[in-house]
Amino acid sequence: MAHLPPKLRVLLVDDQPLFRRALATLVATQLDMTVVGEGESGRDALEKVRSLRPDLVVMDVNMPGSSGVDGVSAIRGAGFAIPIVMLTVSEDDDDLFESIKAGANGYLLKNVRPEDLFDNLRGVMRGEAPIAPAVASKLLEALRTGGLPARSGAVHLSDPNDVALTRRESEILQLVANGLSNKEIANELTITEGTVKNHVHNALEKLHLTNRVQAAAYAVRQGLTSPESPQG
Fold first, then answer.
1. What is the pTM for the complete model shown?
2. Could you tell me if 109 and 91 are in contact, meaning their C-beta atoms sit under 8 angstroms apart?
3. Domain-ending residue, one of 121, 142, 163
4. How would residue 157 be classed by pLDDT, with cut points 50, 70 and 90?
């Protein structure tokens, strides 16, 4: 009997039980995914991550008591690098920017088609950063005007004079800002996807950033690429 690969273990966090259960039912139809737990607040998210150790968190933004942004901040603050995708009805600029700054790996809207949602979740596990088309233009505009809007506690984008990126790291950040996935970057530079992941990881650590969207903002601010040229 063939050995089946392990399923992607997903934690769902949403304050609407009906939506949460419907999404869990859809996840159950995927041969490579399973729901390992559910929560209804950002506080629940951290507790479930600690106890269940899922592979991926899919979380709403606006929840009473403790929001999704609070949940992302708490999970990152506790030292977990687990991928987190926001799934919400909100197209509000603040919700988008605060989610990304807190450390979310993607931002999707609840009107997404199920097949597209699952493709995006698989992409996150490959290091991609899915952003709903309806809000992507807002993110690009923020990059054009100097990065994500600042607030108290916002992520600091390092001064290039203070950071010693290698030539290859800078080159890869440029491609990240142009919207290429790790696989596409690997093909472009004729290197392995694992090598790309290592360079991205090293660059994020040097820049004190948490995800690819923040890296793209850095690349645009420092003139490594043009914000008008994202692909995909």
1. 0.67
2. yes
3. 142
4. very low
The confidence score (pLDDT) of residue 224 equals 60
Domain of 40, in residue numbers: 8-142
Domains of the chain: total: 2
Of 98, 120, 142, which residue sits at a domain end? 142
Higher-confidence position of 53 and 144: 53
- Whether residue 226 is predicted with pLDDT greater than 60 in this model: the reply is no
